[in-house]
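ok so i was messing around last nite and threw this chain in just to see what happens. nothing serious, just curious
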Amino acid sequence: MDLSTVQALPPPTMSQHAVVSTPQDFIDAWKFELAHDFEKGGLPASWAPGQSGPKQWGAEDQKVNLPGNPTALALSADATSLAVAVNSEVLIYDANTFAVRRKRRYAGAIGLLAFHPSGRFLLSSSTVFRNRKIQEYIHLWDLGVEAGAGDWDTFTSRILDVSVEALVNERSWSAAEVEAMSPELKASLEELFQTAELRRDVQRQDALEGHLAGFGSRPFTHDGKFLFYIGGINRADVVVYNVSERKERFRLQRHTDAVMWVGSNPDDTMIATSSWDGTVKLWQGHTGALLHTLQTGRHQLWAGRFSPDGRFLAVGAGSGNIYVWRVETTELISKLDGGPDWVRTLDFSMDVEKDVVYLAAGSSLKVCVFDIRTAERIQNWEVKHDGNGIMYEVQNVQYSPSDFTPRVLGIKTPDGRITVYDNGRNVKWEFEQPLTDAPRLYGTGDMVFHAATSSIISAGSDNSLRVWKL
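result:
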């Protein structure tokens, strides 16, 4: 199982008599309610202009129907292309018109997507179950090359036609037998040729054996020269791969347990990794030499992030703590309480004029915002629960990019809810699944900010994308 896509499922508010045995039971009985909302100067956040309460699905500014359940979402750096993974297929949309530009199907289920900083390549990870084994691959799709391969359905239909003729003429199949077996034959042929094409892609270096780290990992260096992925039997090796030369540059191999997060600082002179072995390691960005090992104790480590100016590094732990180091001195400046459980999503924001650095971190039921200078918790957004915290987790916490107006913090939770907060004006937006829907749906954690339209694009488990303008 790809650990980068694991979703924890902590706490509900529901009747004590409700029987909850599966995620679907939980989400059907779930009632969202806050224990504590965003506030400023002692005043709770008010609704943003145009909102008198949460907007429900159906009131979005635009909806795009997808051919299946989306599993990953990525926006190109220039915000012109939106990539969406639907099961084993990747579709690339025009991010403004939502017309499909390109699409490609892979063997296995797609788990993560990322655009190269230049927009030239699209990175995706897939998991293939074959011969009772899990095999993981990373696909490097060169978008600068004209599409040459045809649609898989068309291809396998042609192969099926040839196969049917051979079965009738050479194997004595009847027309009725062929018709009854055609769907199974087509699926088997598609799997056969997709597997062969995958092996060919590995030989061409268009596919790599391994998986992408998750939890806010940045798979490409900022200059786009290298990509990072996880290899090795114990998932503890980080491969640094030269994109233009299509070859491994070096490996980072000093962790003793699985690596969860990897990223480089803004000038790419340093690489950081967090691991289940309870350590964060800092590596020289051009040689892979180990510079420092930062200790946190025995707790598993998850999400990480460098601050936009590169001065600070934050990593979330399974204890609910967030560790913050000053990068230049490797001094641990704060051990913040973001609990109650593991912190697997976090993000930085900066007020350049005031030289203030903010850190937002999400755990099972809570999002905390800290002022890094003082280690003060300045915001505490928390969901009510009854102590049975097993099926709810904040899946995505991210600040809008610097060119997005207004500057906001976005939160996405597994009931498909998006909460957006503008600290400057102390106002909020909420977008939610209709409470009357039954059965209700778990949402995905995927959402992106689109600066050109001041909107959020969100992937939904009802086979759709939704656009919400702020």
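not much to say yet. The chain has one domain: 3-215+344-469.
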